């Protein structure tokens, strides 16, 4: 929901991205092109199960693209943000920045 | 504006952290240590009457170490990542700077081993030539460090440059090939030790995974 003067409100926040772990996953995938499961797990210091469940949620809403393939005999799961995921992440950041910008300075 | 800048800065830091994690394995350090060690031992080839072509081929060992180390040690442990297009564009500059390092090193090696130029330049040549060599090597390796975004390489560039000067200072005292062995060898040993410590701590922190996780995503 956006007010008349285009100022964002709490209702504009994407709840999927707003969860801290998912935000971290989205932020990391936003600044790189793609990475495999192991890289994300090491960078974000998450357990495989935790990362897997968050990625499943992000894949369901088409924010993350999961590409499973074999490199020789080694299975590899490459992950990247979809176009929609990139746009939604940028929108989320914009919303947060506007909301944080409206907060008064602490003396 | 302040919040926007802070958030953009956070993203930049996140990307840098991810990128720099590829240097945590110590393989770059070991490769530069070996490179410098090559400078320390190559004068021995002349001393022992072994062909110089063998000595030149030693200079390619660090490149081989980097390629094989990243493939068989780093990627299986910390995973694979493709960085942004801006980072990948830099690869061309890295390649050019890398080739420049190789060519300049070989030229300097030829220059150092001939000795005729120094003699013809007289007393000033003995001082100015090593300084010019040290400055050139620092400039080129420093450029490589800038493009790779690997800050320890600035220190290694300085150590390499210092090695040239120390070798030159030691020459009248202990002569060839011991001057290079001490001049470069001490710096090479320091870099190699540091690289090995980093490698061991990397191997302990990231054990090799036999199972590929992530196959259950979406299930």
Characterise this structure.
- A 3-stranded antiparallel β-sheet of chain A has the order 1-3-2.
- Chain A has one domain: Arc Repressor Mutant, subunit A (Orthogonal Bundle), CATH 1.10.10.
- In chain A, 53% of the residues lie in helices and 18% in strands.
- Chain A has 107 residues and is an alpha+beta fold.
- With 219 residues, chain B is an all-alpha fold.
- Chain B has one domain.
- Helices cover 82% and strands 1% of the residues of chain B.
- Chain B has 8 helices and 1 strand; from the N terminus they run H-H-H-H-E-H-H-H-H.
- In chain B, helix 2 runs antiparallel to helix 3.
- In chain B, 25% of the residues are buried.
- Strand 1 of chain A pairs antiparallel with strand 1 of chain B, so a sheet runs across the interface.
**Counted beta strands of chain A:** 3
Strand order of the largest sheet of chain A: 1-3-2
What summary fits the major beta sheet of chain B?
none
Percent in strands of chain A:
15-25%
Low-confidence stretches of chain A: none
Helix content of chain A: 40-55%
Compile the SSE list and pairings.
The complex is a heterodimer of chains A (107) and B (219).
Chain A lengths: L14 H4 L1 H12 L2 E3 H8 L3 H13 L3 E8 L2 E8 L1 H20 L5
Chain B lengths: L1 H19 L6 H22 L3 H7 L2 H18 L2 E2 L2 H30 L1 H33 L3 H23 L3 H28 L14
Helix pairs in contact in B: 2-3, 2-4, 2-8, 5-6, 6-7, 7-8
């Amino acid at each position: 929901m956006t007010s008349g003067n285009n100022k964002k409100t709490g209702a504009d926040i994407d709840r999927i991205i707003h969860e801290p772990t998912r935000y971290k996953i989205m932020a990391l995938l936003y600044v790189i092109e793609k990475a495999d499961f192991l890289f994300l797990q090491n960078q974000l210091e998450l357990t495989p199960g935790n990362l897997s469940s968050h990625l499943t949620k992000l894949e369901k809403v088409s924010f993350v693209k999961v590409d499973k393939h074999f490199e020789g005999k080694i299975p590899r799961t490459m992950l990247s943000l979809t176009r929609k995921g990139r746009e939604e992440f940028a929108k989320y950041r914009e919303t947060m920045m506007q909301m944080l910008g409206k907060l008064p300075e602490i003396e | 504006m302040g919040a926007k800048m802070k958030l953009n800065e956070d993203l930049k830091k996140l990307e840098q952290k991810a990128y720099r994690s590829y240097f945590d394995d110590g393989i770059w350090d070991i490769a530069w240590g070996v490179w410098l060690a090559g400078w320390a031992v190559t004068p021995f080839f002349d001393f022992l009457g072994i062909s110089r072509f063998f000595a030149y081929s030693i200079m390619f060992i660090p490149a081989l170490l980097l390629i094989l180390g990243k493939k068989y040690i780093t990627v299986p442990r910390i995973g694979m990542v493709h960085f942004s297009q801006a980072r990948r564009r830099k690869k061309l500059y890295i390649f050019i700077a890398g080739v420049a390092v190789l060519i300049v090193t070989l030229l300097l090696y030829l220059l150092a081993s001939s000795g005729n130029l120094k003699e013809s330049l007289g007393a000033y040549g003995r001082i100015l030539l090593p300084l010019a060599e040290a400055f050139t090597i620092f400039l080129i390796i420093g450029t490589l460090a800038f493009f790779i975004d690997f800050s320890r390489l600035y220190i290694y560039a300085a150590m390499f440059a210092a090695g040239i000067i120390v070798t030159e200072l030691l020459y009248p005292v202990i002569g060839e090939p011991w001057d290079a062995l001490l001049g470069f060898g001490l710096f090479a040993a320091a870099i190699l030790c540091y690289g090995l410590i980093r490698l061991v701590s990397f191997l302990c922190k990231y054990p090799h995974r036999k199972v590929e996780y992530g196959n259950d995503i979406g299930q």
